[in-house]
Amino acid sequence: MSAVAAAPRVIYRRPSVLTDVSTRYCPGCGHGIIHRLIAEVLEELGVAGRTIAVAPVGCSVFAYEYLSLDWCEAPHGRAPAVATGIRRVRPDAFVLTYQGDGDLAAIGTGEIVHAAARGELITAVFVNNGIYGMTGGQMAPTTLLGQKTTSSPAGREASLAGYPVPMTEMLAVLPGVAYAARGSIADPSAIGRTKAMIRKACQAQLGGEGFAIVEVLSNCPVGWGMTAPESIQYLKDVVVATYPLGVLADRTGSKRGSGGTPEPASPGPGGHAAAVATAKEA
Amino acid sequence: MTARPEAAVQGQVPTSEEPAESPSFSLGGTPGGSRRVLMKGNEAIAEAAIQAGCDAYFGYPITPQAELLEWMARRMPEEHRAFIQAESELGAINMALGAAATGARVLVSSSSPGVSLMAEAMSYMAGSEVPMVLINVMRGGPGLGSIQPSQSDYFQAVKGHGHGDYRVPVFAPSSIGEAMELVATSFEVAERYRTPVMLLADGIMGQAMEPVELRFRTPDRIEQPWALEGADGRPPRVVRSLHLVPEDLEEHNLHLQEKFRAISEREVRWAGEHLEDAELVVVAYGTAARVAHTAIARAREAGMNVGLFRPISLWPFPSALLAALAERVRGMLVVELSAGQMVEDVRLAVEGRVPVAFDGRMGGMVPSPDEVVEALRELDTTGLPAKRSRRARRRQPGPVSGPEHTHEREPLAAAESGHEALSIFGDDAWMPLWYTSPVPSRKGGKR
Fold first, then answer.
1. The model's pTM
2. Predicted ipTM of the assembly
């Protein structure tokens, strides 16, 4: 043995963006993992300080308590519109939305489709757990056929409630979408791949490439009526069959060029922040 | 209304050297001469917003406000500012929420059915204290209604749009010139109190063309220590209306109510005509006030002592001033392009001191001045109990006139300022003929 002990090496730590609090999420819920992935990516890309994030209505309504960023609350489903407004007056900001499947795939379909169609320079994290968790586990547009929820007690039946909506596939066909992918939090390797997708979706914004979305398949043990391990197994065995994992569209590098900072769309250099500064000087 | 902006306005892009207060488009007419120009209301309002420093505009096409959106579509990019034709009114108002949450000066416009869709976000913005200006160019309702002018959204504008305990300042112009000034005022009030503000116009204000003086005002920017910009080097900021703990939400509501009280005390705006000798008063706002203006001129020619009280801020409503006025007149006639909405606030204000009659048309119909004169005659000759003996003595049969009474009356505070002599319309249409008057203290004695 050498006389000199090896210096301790940090192999795992809390990202600075992640606040040091207990979340309000249920035991076994996937939101915490996804928050952490976002925190790690923002920190690694060095954009946390200029990030303006948009919080949804749903279980993750308190996301601003867990990620130490500037946040704007959006009415249910409207996060992509709110983010668009931020984007257009803050060309210098990094704009992130975080939405669940009830928020994005039901009440907010209009807003997400048109933000994507406009190719807004926004990174959207779309957490799909197939259920309205916060309000007590009702059926969502993403609920699987046959899946029992409090508003489909006999299981979702197509003749009554239609079919699960593959939102990200639908968005992927739009030319304004630079990057669209679906990951999951079912196991460590899937989590690693999902983090890479989120990173790529953030880089698409930084490169001025267009709209980017990562759908993250997650679990809801309480809403699904399962234990946490059962819910993870269900995610792996059943959910993924309806929502295949992988990259659904990648137009990065083909549109507005890669690298560099996004062109300021509006307002002019410095935007209204500069106007404020001028007014202060005057 | 076929005139296009290009017909009235020529020339285009400003050079960056031009000072901000100078309009960036040049006009036909004598160089260096009058800067008065014939403009359509929607376009004049839009340009006034640009000159007021509007950073971003979000809209969706709807008649009768579409020219406002079109003007912005052309002019905002010229100014390197944000313009989006949104996918819906929901999209537009939520884009406004996001942009305004960063401290930008933001305008949204729509017309009645579209404004209904915006109710949700108005509630969020009131709750999360985001300043923004929404223009409603009102059309007939309910439902899809018509595209003709109306004032049937008074309740919606003044009593609240969305859910929850909140108020929003509402300003109602009676001329295009006044609308231009009120756009700047709206931005100012919005930012001063961190609140959405509504500018309530109607189809006539939006579609009519009248000569306007190109006078613009750019309100000063104020510090916004709440605005989102990225949390670099400081604690994060959150713009939100959610307060799940009841104690917290009540405290937030108490804070909002305190703010609404401050607005009620400081932001009352109104104008009047012939109030110094009026025995009967017409209360009307917006386009209805223009009809009333003509009507009272005719009534006065016929020997009736009639005045006009024109609320400009519909919330806060000039209740105290109307109550003071009620002490000196025999009756009031409220004229609206509705089934009678503001009349409820007038009755609340005067608390039965004088009879308050109503005359209105609906569905895009506009009452004629003669209809209003007729309603005044009816008010004058029927059912006007003399409220006090002094009045009873002075009460004359038939149309009331009598310059001999004029000087017995104490003028309202605002009447002393001399503004009353100014006409709201015609040659003076460009003038921002509003003025604020301190609300008489409740404890203070009457003048």
1. 0.85
2. 0.89
